[in-house]
Design brief:
Elements lengths: L6 H14 L3 H32 L1 H9 L1
Helix pairs in contact: 1-2
Length: about 70
């Protein structure tokens, strides 16, 4: 896999990698893993909200009228 980024982004990436004493490759892998984890969590939360809205639809309707 090739990744083409702007020289500006490459410089930022290199600076962060240098600060953390890791390679740019390791830094990119970490960022991808964190993004994937956050995306999974968001998906799980949204699914839970949807289930709750369906399960408690009648209760929510009654609370609207309260």
């Amino acid at each position: 896999m090739n990744l083409r980024i702007s020289p500006e982004l490459d410089a930022q990436l290199q600076a962060i990698a240098d600060d953390r004493h890791v390679s740019k490759h390791a830094l990119i892998l970490q960022a991808i893993e964190e993004f994937a984890s956050a995306t999974r969590k968001t998906t799980q939360v949204m699914a839970s909200v949807e289930r709750t809205l369906i399960r408690d639809a009648e209760l929510l309707r009654r609370l609207e009228d309260a």
